[in-house]
Design goal:
about 150 residues, alpha+beta, five-stranded antiparallel β-sheet, about 25% strand
Length: about 150
C-alpha cells in the first residue's frame, strides 16, 4: 500500500468516526431536551384535568394510559384545544401534572427515582460514546504515516 493510499484510508476512518460521533451527539441533544422537559426545567408547567382516559396495552413497553383533557398552566389559564398525555396510572377526573414541551406535546412529570435516573442516564451515555468516537477519530488523524523511503537512514 502506498503512502497516499494509507493517508486516504486514515482520513476516511477518521471521517467515519466523526460522523458517528455527530449522530450520537444529535440523539444525545434530542434526549437531553426531552430530559429537561421531564425534569421540569424546560417548557411551560401546569396540569391536565383528564376528561377521558383510555388504556393502551401490549407490546414490549407494557401498557400505558392516554388521557385527554384541558391543559391549565401555572397561572390558572386554560388552553383552547384538547390536550393529550401518556401516563401510567390515571383515571377520568384525575389531575395529571405535565410540562408543555417546546414542540407542543405534553409530557407527564415522573418524580420516581427510576424515572429521573433513566431520563438523565441515556443522554449522558450517548455523550460519553460520542466523546469516545471523537478520541478515536483524533487518533487516526494524529497517526503518522510510514516515513518515505528516501528519508530513511541506510
Amino acid at each position: 500500500m502506498s503512502a497516499a493510499e494509507g493517508a486516504r484510508d486514515r482520513f476516511a476512518a477518521a471521517g467515519a468516526w466523526m460522523f458517528l460521533s455527530l449522530v450520537l451527539l444529535t440523539f444525545a441533544a434530542f434526549l437531553g431536551v426531552r430530559a429537561a422537559v421531564g425534569f421540569g426545567v424546560l417548557g411551560e408547567g401546569g396540569h391536565i384535568v383528564a376528561a377521558r382516559c383510555v388504556e393502551h396495552g401490549g407490546g414490549k413497553g407494557g401498557s400505558y394510559v392516554e388521557c385527554a383533557g384541558t391543559f391549565v398552566n401555572g397561572r390558572g389559564e386554560r388552553s383552547d384545544g384538547p390536550a393529550t398525555v401518556r401516563s401510567y396510572s390515571a383515571v377520568d377526573g384525575d389531575v395529571v401534572p405535565v410540562r408543555r414541551a417546546p414542540w407542543g406535546t405534553y409530557e407527564a412529570l415522573d418524580d420516581s427515582l427510576l424515572g429521573l435516573v433513566g431520563r438523565g442516564f441515556f443522554p449522558l451515555l450517548l455523550t460519553v460514546a460520542a466523546a469516545g468516537c471523537l478520541v478515536r477519530a483524533g487518533s487516526f488523524v494524529r497517526r503518522e504515516a510510514g516515513e518515505p523511503a528516501e528519508n530513511r537512514s541506510r
